[in-house]
């Protein structure tokens, strides 16, 4: 579902005019649609209705307290990767007993905090980590629930920086060593083996790597259930979204005619692909979606400051930079750019859309054919709800942008724009 569309010549989020938001709260600004987030969560939940399952929303995608609260109220669990994310979940009213804790480098302080809060499972990435959790739990007089993350050595066919399930990636326990890891961990006194986890990568646009991974790892899950009585199998996150709206609005006949790799992956197709094998296991199935839930639920608004005509090309300089949205610079990520004021005719020109930062990589699009939006106008970078604000920084001593949540015709600031004083508040 998309809640960003033109009404009366202006781009809206649900029933709120984004031009009004830009005028009232300034730019750059992140704007999220509450109903899109809920719709995505509910669609995923419904697609899995026939099996015992739990959605563990991947907090790293968008960790604003209001986003977490919305999902907590729907009954979502949370996949966290730091003590900080656990703190956020608790502050937002989330249930630690529904939290899984991922990551290759958990510290003592984080393990202690998670044990105190009683999380559902540590998703452990090495035997060394299991041994350390055993020590810490023992000191605290607790038994830590753990699952190993297995690295299934499956090619996710995504950008190399967000591929995680190949043997050369740092994640998980090698498929060849995983049974021995369970065997040794079963001897540890202060840990309890309760599950198995995997996550092969992010922004997967085809269902086949998911099916390949599930088929490869399911026999292992069955064996671990029989041997150690594990209760869950987490198949991770990674469901990709459509960053190019031309694909999203394409006609069904067009969609059906495409090769699998070229068409958007729907959640129904994903569920139909993985469910048959998972059903046989009789285990609780966990999913850790991040981008699927929030990616298309957010845009970043930015204003055009200058138009600069060079001999090679035209540059539109906007007031957001790579510090606000780093995905184009880091992963060559594509974020569709649309003017908030609907273009009257076809006045596309070739341009680079660039930010104010002192880096050549500070661009949102290069050599793009886009409507010739004027200086002073506001544009929206679509599909910025995931890994947008959470990856923003203060580089060039730029304040972090404001975040706004829209619900119907209401818009609320859910995080204030940083002030200049905020920028130096922690410095001594
Ligand atoms: N579970 C684990 C263990 C993960 O490492 C991740 C993402 C997820 C779940 C959620 O994946 P998702 O459903 O969102 O694909 N910053 C990058 C993406 C990094 C993903 C890291 N791990 C980007 O902007 O594309």
From TrEMBL:
It catalyses: meso-2,6-diaminopimelate + H(+) = L-lysine + CO2. Belongs to the Orn/Lys/Arg decarboxylase class-II family. LysA subfamily. GO terms for molecular function: diaminopimelate decarboxylase activity; pyridoxal phosphate binding. Its EC number is 4.1.1.20. NCBIfam families: lysA. This is Diaminopimelate decarboxylase. Its cofactor is pyridoxal 5'-phosphate. Transmembrane segments: none annotated. InterPro entries: Ala_racemase/Decarboxylase_C, DAP_deCOOHase_LysA, De-COase2_C, De-COase2_CS, De-COase2_N, De-COase2_pyr-phos_BS, Orn/DAP/Arg_de-COase, PLP-binding_barrel. Keywords: Amino-acid biosynthesis, Decarboxylase, Lyase, Lysine biosynthesis, Pyridoxal phosphate. The keyword Amino-acid biosynthesis applies. Specifically catalyzes the decarboxylation of meso-diaminopimelate (meso-DAP) to L-lysine. Homodimer.
């Amino acid at each position: 579902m998309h809640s960003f569309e033109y009404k009366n010549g202006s781009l809206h989020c649900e029933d709120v005019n984004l031009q009004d938001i830009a005028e009232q709260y300034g730019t750059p600004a992140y704007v999220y649609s509450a109903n899109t987030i809920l719709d995505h969560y509910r669609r995923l939940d419904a697609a899995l209705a026939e099996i015992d399952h739990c959605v563990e929303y991947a907090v790293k995608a968008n960790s604003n307290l209001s986003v977490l609260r919305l999902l907590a109220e729907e009954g979502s669990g949370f996949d966290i990767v730091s003590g900080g994310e656990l703190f956020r979940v608790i502050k937002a009213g989330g249930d630690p007993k529904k939290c899984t804790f991922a990551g290759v480098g958990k510290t003592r302080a984080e393990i202690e905090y998670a044990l105190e809060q009683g999380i559902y499972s540590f998703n452990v990435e090495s035997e060394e980590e299991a041994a350390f959790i055993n020590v810490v739990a023992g000191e605290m007089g607790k038994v830590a629930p753990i699952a190993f993350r297995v690295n299934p050595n499956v090619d996710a066919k995504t950008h190399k920086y967000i591929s995680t399930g190949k043997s050369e990636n740092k994640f998980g326990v090698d498929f060849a060593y995983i049974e021995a890891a369970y065997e040794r961990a079963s001897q540890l006194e202060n840990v309890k083996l309760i599950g198995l986890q995997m996550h092969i990568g992010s922004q997967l646009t085809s269902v086949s790597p998911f099916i390949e991974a599930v088929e490869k790892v399911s026999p292992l899950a069955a064996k671990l259930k029989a041997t150690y009585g594990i209760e869950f199998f987490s198949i991770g996150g990674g469901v990709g979204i459509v960053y190019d709206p031309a694909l999203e609005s394409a006609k069904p006949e067009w969609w059906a005619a495409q090769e699998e790799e070229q068409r958007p992956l729907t959640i129904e197709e994903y569920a139909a692909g993985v469910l048959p094998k998972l059903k046989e296991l009789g285990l609780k199935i966990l999913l850790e979606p991040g981008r699927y839930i929030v990616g298309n639920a957010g845009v970043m608004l930015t204003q055009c400051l200058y138009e600069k005509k060079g001999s090679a090309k035209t540059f539109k300089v906007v007031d957001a930079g790579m510090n606000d949205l780093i995905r184009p610079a880091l992963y060559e990520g594509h974020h569709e750019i649309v003017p908030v004021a609907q273009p009257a005719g076809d006045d596309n020109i070739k341009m680079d859309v660039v930010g104010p930062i002192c880096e050549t990589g500070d661009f949102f699009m290069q050599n793009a054919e886009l409507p010739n939006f004027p200086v002073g106008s506001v544009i929206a970078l679509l599909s910025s709800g995931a890994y947008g604000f959470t990856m923003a920084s203060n580089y060039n001593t730029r304040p972090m942008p404001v975040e706004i949540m829209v619900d119907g015709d209401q818009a609320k600031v859910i995080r204030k724009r940083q002030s200049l004083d905020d920028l130096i508040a922690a410095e001594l």
